[in-house]
Each structure stands twice: as C-alpha cells, then as structure tokens.
Design goal:
10 helices, six-stranded antiparallel beta sheet, five-stranded mixed beta sheet
Length: 846
C-alpha cells in the first residue's frame, strides 16, 4: 500500500510540474515544439527552476492538509530526502514580517498547535490571494478591501545604474513577500532572449519607497558604485548596450508562490556630449514626382538605425485630427550616406524597385504637405518624431515638344496641311463638307464613345484621356493643351513679398497674333506665413483676358479651400485677407507682357474680426482708399499701407469740394492714422481732435502707415456713399536734402530759396549746439502750400522727439521757436503739386 501511495504522489507531482513548466515558459519559448541544442540549453535552467517551484508548491500544499487521507503521502514527503532538500529552501511559511503566535508548553499545548495551524492557513491564504491578484477581483471575496490597482513597473538606466521600481498589490501582500526574481531579456524580432541568469533579491534588500512601492538598484558590471562585501548589493553580469531595447521582468515571490510577471521596456540611452541633440534634424524638398529627405541623426544611435517611418498629411492638417494620407516604412538599405559621415542620411523617393522595393504614390502637384518622420532603432523602439512642411513645386513648359501648326491660325481655326490654309473648327467631324477633304486633323477622334469612356470632349471631337496635356494639340481647337496642362507653381514663406505673371518663352515657330494674346499658362502660388498671422493680398497690376482667364484666391493651402476672390478683366479687385496663415492663388501667365498681374502681400497679427470685402486692405506704394468703402462697418476697417522702399515715407490726403461738408466732417472724426502698423504707435491724425479743413494731408515718419476708419451707423446707408477718396503716395527719400549743423549759429532754408521749392521732397536739418545750451530758431519768412506742405520742428534729434511746431501756408513773420535741449530736428515735406517760396530761418545757441 505504501508503494501505491508513492506512485500516486509522483504521478501527481509530475503532472503539475509539467503544467507549471509550460505556463512558466509560455512567453520565453518560441512557438515551435522542437528546439535545437543551443535553444534547449538556454531553456534548461528556466525549466528546471519552474519544475522545482511547482514541486515545492504542491508539497507544501499537501503538508498543510489535516485530513487523514493525505497522511500516507505526507509521511512519504517527510521521509524522502529529495523533497526534504527542496522544502528546506524555504521551510517556513512565515515571512520575516509575519510572526506566528507563541505556543506554551502548558496544558494549552493542543490549543496552541491548533492556533498555529490556523495562522499558517491564513498566511497561506493571503499568499495565494496576492499571487492571483491579477486574475481575481479579491475585493469581491474579501471583507477587507485593501487591494490597490494592478501592479506597475518602471525601469530607468542612468549613470551605470539600473533602477527598477514596482508596486505590490497591497500592504497585506508586503507581509507575505519573501523577495523578487528579476530577469532581463534582449528584445529581438519579437522574441525575448534572456540576457543573463535570474537575479533573486530577498525582501530585506528591497528598498521601500512608499506603502506599496518598492525599488532595487542594479549596478553595471565593474561599476565603481558596487559595494563589495554588502550582501544586499546586486549587479548585472553583462553590460547593457547603448541604443538597445530590453525587457525588464520582475516577479514577486509570496513565500512559496510566485505572482504575475511584471514587464516593462527599457531603452539604454546613448552617452551624448552637451552639443548633441536627441531630436533628429530634418529638411525636405519635393518636386512634382519626387520627394527628397536630408537629415542628421544626432540621437547617438545612428549605427543602430534600422528604418525610417514616414507619415504624410495633405495640406498640413495633422493638427486637426486628420489621418495620414500615406504611411511608409523605409528600410535602411534605401538610404544614402556620404563617406565618413556616420550620422548624415539622404533619401529620394521613388527609388529603384530592385534596390529599394517601396510602394510610392506620387504627391499632388502644387500642394502643401506635412511630413512626420521618426527613426526606428529596434523592433520596439522608435526615436523622437520630427516634422517638416513641403510644397510640391513645378516649373511648367509652355512650348509643345514639336512645332504645331495649330498656333499659326486665329482663335477657333486650325491649320489644314492639305489645303495649306486655316479653316474653322466648327466643321470638325463633318464628313458632308467637301471643303475639308484632305484635312486629316479634323477627321480624327470623332468617335463619341470615347467621351463616354472617360475621354476629353473638344467640340465635336473626343480624344482619349491619355492624350490630354501630352504636349501635342490633338484637338483642332487646341483645348487639350490648355493653361492647366503645364502649371508653374511655387511657395512663398517670407512675411511679405510679391509675385507676378511670368513672361512665357516664345516658341521658335510662327504664332498668330490672336493666339499670342489668348495663349496663357496657369501659375499657382502658395503663401505661407507664421501661424499667428493673417495674410493681406493686393494687386498693383491686373489685366487678364476677359471672361476666359480668371484669377482665383483661396482662403487656405489649396484650391479645395474656400474661394475668397474670382476676378478677370482690367479692373483691379479689392484687397483680400486670409483667415489663416495660408493663401493659395491661381493666375495666368502670357506670351505678351501687356497682360498679366502683379501682386503684393504682407502678414499681420491675427484677430478675431471677420473679413468683409472692401473693409480694410493692403496698399503697397501708391493707391487709393476708394469712396465705396464708406458703408456701415461698426467694428471699423484697418488699412495697412507700405512704401516701396524702407527709406521712403508715405503721403495720405483727400479733398472736400462739394456742399456736403458737414457730413464729411462727421466722417473725418471717425478717422485715426498711425505711424506703423500698431494702434500703440504714434498718432499722426486723430479726427476727433483735429479742426475742420477742406484739405487733409498726412505724412508718415516711417515707411508704414495704418488707417483706422470707424464709421458710425447714422452716417450713411449701404446704398448711399459719401463722395470721397483717400490718395496714398510714396514719398521718395531725398538724402541730398539732409543737412547737419554743429556750429553755434547758422542759417537754414527751403530748397531753391528764394525761388519755389520742388515737389515731393522730404528735407531734414539736424542742429546740435554745445551741451548745456539750447537752440533758438528765428523764422524771417514762411510761405508754403496751405494744408499740404508742412514744416515740423522737434525738440530733439529724431522724429519721435517732442513736436515743438507745425506750420503750413502763409504765416506772419518773424516768429521764434526755443528748444529745451541742445538738439533740434527740422523737417520740411511737400506733396506732388503746387509749390511756394518756402522759408528762411536763423538759429543760434542760447
């Protein structure tokens, strides 16, 4: 009978050991059931440990039973030396922090033994709960809900020390914890390869950070931080490689039971110098059919770089939750590197399918994209992401590949080689007209089924879509090679700038004058400024072919954005303003310079004000704020005016010549003019404070001026506009008219005095006397054009010094101006018409 119990016990233990072995190595072993010699040798120790742990669990569980049924098996376990040696590794079920109740040798010995057994059972129950905490919600089965969320683990490697922190399910589990087992795996191709033997750390060597948060520091091999002779000093046996990815695993031992394995990924950071950047630098450029990337990998892990992850977003909409239009993973074999440069890389797509089998879909022409790039260094570790915006530029080519007789004829005619003359396109595909016999071009592509199959219709003809924009005129009316076929497109990113229609190259063959005027090629421009600014766009030249070539402006980065302006002909449109930092413009370019556009743009800080056509605008150089703008805009309209050169100034003026002077006066009182483009700038004109004049002339100090017009509702109605306009003129700088005086006395006078001064001048006299003295100006004669040509005197060396005097017209003389400092600046400005003798003054030091 004893032999029979022994057989049953062994069979029971072997079955459990096998199940525990399979569970323990489920994550470590490969899916295949057969392993080679090397693999089996690596798996031997883990399997042996698992079997030993399983046997130990079963033996302790049987020994804790009080039923007589298990008595024979318990006797075998107690007598067998193999089981005794296994159990001796942890012979008591009590932890160092959990003491069993003491038992006296008196009459209560039996009660003490019973109490000890009950305590052991409770402790074992606690250990089982803690080891299974990840599977069972113990809060539902235990009257004391003291368990925390599932355990967490973190690992950090710094200064040759691997610091591991983990949480225990509860404070009660800490009482039955006997220590932890730590394993480190190297991650490779989705498998975990053990880096070294497990490290067993007893509970007494674990640092308690918080109630249920523990940690341990593992030093690198041969690290100076390792304390020799310290029983609680643990270290790794192998060095961790920079830029490699590892898996750190911690298993908490609850006496004889093991908890769930907690794992976290650990990436060993590179040792960088102070100048290195963790974020790879990226630059990108794109053409109509290719994408080129150049970047410098300063992560310190360039040798371990395996691939590049690209995400491409159309119109740069990555911040709006849009999905990527394309996601591509490019292996390192596709990269190019300069000789001797280990961290410089370049890539051009598309590439040869033989050397780099990447499926690449060309990007749309003339479109903005945002590219997110991240470098991958292992199967589980990606570097930080970098981003760059690109625009797919293209340079169009107007002239067809070969001379085409289509351009020899006027509009709506084609050239018949057989007849040697131009013939009308209306009779194309008309077999009844004998006059067209021999004209093969008008007999082609007459099958209407081609149009039903996605072909292109041109009059009576239908050509296959493959012939559209192929460089040859296949339609007799030439519409298959229209302006959209060869687009020229580019991007402007400066805060301000300009662009204009291109002059197309004249083909080296005969073109009818009618076709020269009508022939055009579309040009597209994307204007992109910083994200916190709007874009104002104005046209200084505008002349397109009426009802045929249209200029379109879109409020955004592409032609799918909302349309702001659609205009053609010879009249200039109003200024437009974007609602974002992008503006997309389509306009024609011609063979003749008579036609075309010239546009200027600038960027201003964004506001919440809605753009209303005609309310506000941008004027570059000379221009007009037209009378049609005097409508009911409550919030007011801002006009941004800029001279053509930074040394120039601006002149703003208007006239009152009709009988409605009072109503215009009320309008002037809503006008504010600032020097510069900020309401905090110097006020040049305040309608509320200025007296009524029939003529208002305002000169800027710098090359920029801002006009704010806030029209009260009662002033007018949308159908009733005041008859007024403001003219803006750029005042060219006159450096020859700038003078400096440092003598204590002297004379200043207007140019050409005593004859009339010239028009459109801006003259300045800087007077400086000895420190501590003051300047006295005595004007002996003063006569200028009233309310148009002005003299200003400033109490200091600049135009921003305190203004002492403003004079215009015929002024009685003599009069004196005294300064409070030893420097004075005198400025004299005149407009473009009507001059006078000017002024004469003597200065002295007082």
């Amino acid at each position: 009978m004893k032999l029979w119990y022994r057989i049953i016990a062994l069979y029971f233990l072997i079955a459990f050991a096998r199940s525990e072995e399979q569970e323990e190595n489920a994550d470590d072993a490969k899916p295949a059931a057969i392993c080679n010699v090397v693999e089996c040798s690596k798996l031997f120790n883990p399997r042996l440990e698992a079997m030993e742990m399983a046997v130990k669990k079963i033996a302790l569980a049987i020994l804790s039973q009080t039923s007589d049924v298990f008595a024979p098996i318990k006797e075998i376990l107690e007598e067998d030396p193999t089981f005794t040696s296994i159990l001796s590794l942890n012979s008591t079920i009590y932890s160092s922090s959990t003491k069993a109740p003491s038992v006296s040798n008196g009459t209560h010995k039996e009660d003490g033994q019973k109490q000890e057994k009950n305590f052991a059972v409770a402790n074992l129950k606690r250990a089982v709960k803690c080891s299974l905490a990840h599977l069972v919600d113990i809060n539902l089965t235990d009257p004391e809900p003291y368990y925390e969320p599932l355990p967490q683990i973190t690992a950090l490697f710094t200064k040759d020390i691997l610091k591991i922190e983990w949480s225990v399910p509860s404070a009660e589990c800490v009482k039955v914890s006997s220590g932890v087992r730590i394993k480190i795996y190297e991650s490779a191709d989705g498998y975990k390869v053990p880096l070294e033997a497990p490290i067993f750390v007893p509970q007494k060597c674990i640092k308690k950070i918080a109630k249920t948060l523990h940690s341990i520091n593992l030093a690198s091999p041969f690290s100076s931080s390792t304390s020799r002779g310290n029983a609680c000093a643990f270290s790794l046996t192998k060095n961790l490689t920079q830029c490699r990815s590892y898996i750190v695993e911690v298993v908490i031992n609850y006496q004889s039971l093991a908890g769930k394995a907690m794992q976290t990924e650990l990436v060993i950071p590179p040792k960088l110098n102070e100048k290195a950047h963790l974020k790879p630098l990226i630059s990108a450029s794109a053409r109509s059919s290719s994408l080129t990337l150049n970047w410098e990998d300063n992560s310190g892990c360039a040798p371990q770089l395996t691939s590049l992850n690209l995400e491409i977003f159309q119109d740069g909409m990555v911040d709006k939750g849009e999905k990527a239009n394309a996601t591509v993973v490019i292996p390192r074999s596709c990269f190019k590197q300069p000789i001797g440069e280990g961290n410089l890389f370049s890539l051009t797509l598309p590439t040869s399918e033989l050397t780099c089998p990447i499926v690449w879909k060309p990007l749309d022409v003339c479109r903005k994209y945002k590219i997110n790039m991240s470098s991958q260094y292992s199967s589980t570790w990606n570097g930080p992401s970098s981003s760059s915006e690109i625009f797919t530029e293209q340079e169009g080519n107007f002239a067809p590949d070969s001379p085409n007789v289509f351009l020899r004829c006027p509009i709506h005619q084609f050239y018949c080689q057989y007849r040697q003359r131009c013939m009308h396109t209306s009779n194309a595909c008309n077999n009844d007209n004998n006059d067209y016999d021999g004209c093969e071009s008008e007999k082609r592509y007459c099958e209407q089924d081609v149009c039903y199959k996605g072909g292109f219709r041109c009059g009576q003809q239908c050509i296959p879509k493959e012939l559209l924009c192929n460089g040859n005129f296949d339609c007799v009316d030439g519409s298959d090679e229209g302006p959209d076929c060869e687009n020229t497109c580019f991007q402007l990113t400066n805060p301000s700038g300009n662009f204009s229609s291109q002059k197309l190259h004249m083909p080296p063959y005969e073109i009818h004058w009618d076709k020269i005027v009508n022939t055009a090629q579309n040009t597209k421009v994307l204007i992109s400024v910083q994200s916190t600014h709007h874009i104002w766009l104005t046209f200084n030249k505008f002349n397109t072919f009426q009802n045929q070539h249209i200029v379109k402006v879109y409020d955004g980065p592409y032609s799918t954005s909302p349309l702001l302006l659609s205009h053609n002909g010879s009249t200039k449109p109003y200024s437009v303003r974007s609602s974002s930092s992008d503006l997309f413009v389509e306009f024609p370019s011609y063979l003749s310079t008579t036609y075309g556009i010239e546009a200027f743009y600038t960027s201003v800080r964004s506001t919440d004000d809605q753009f209303l056509p005609g309310c506000g605008g941008y004027i570059y150089g000379d221009g007009i704020i037209p009378k049609s703008l005097a409508t009911t805009f409550n919030t007011g309209c801002f006009w941004y005016i800029e001279a053509t050169q930074s040394d120039d100034t601006l002149l703003l003026k208007t006239n009152i010549s009709d009988s409605d002077a009072y109503r215009k006066l009320q309008f002037y009182r809503t006008l504010m003019v600032y020097d510069g483009w900020n309401t905090d700038g110097l006020v040049l004109y305040d309608g509320k404070e200025c007296e009524y004049k029939k003529k208002v002339t305002i000169y800027s100090i710098t090359h920029k001026m801002m006009v704010h017009i806030k029209i009260p509702i009662w002033t007018t109605t949308p159908n009733e506009n005041l008859d007024f306009s403001w003219w803006i003129t750029t005042q060219k700088s006159t450096p020859h008219c700038n003078n400096h005086f440092e003598e204590n006395t002297g004379t200043i006078k207007s140019p050409n005095y005593p004859t009339f001064y010239p028009n459109s001048v801006d003259c300045r006299w800087n007077i400086k006397v000895e420190p501590g003295s003051k300047v006295r100006l005595l004007f002996a004669l003063f006569e200028t054009q009233a309310d148009a040509d002005y003299l200003y005197v400033y109490d200091g060396p600049t135009l921003r010094s305190t203004l002492l005097l403003t004079k215009s017209g015929l002024v009685p003389t003599p009069f004196i101006v005294n300064s409070s400092t030893n420097q004075v600046l005198v400025r004299f400005v005149s407009d473009e018409d009507t001059s006078s003798p000017g002024f004469l003054a003597v200065y002295s030091s007082v």
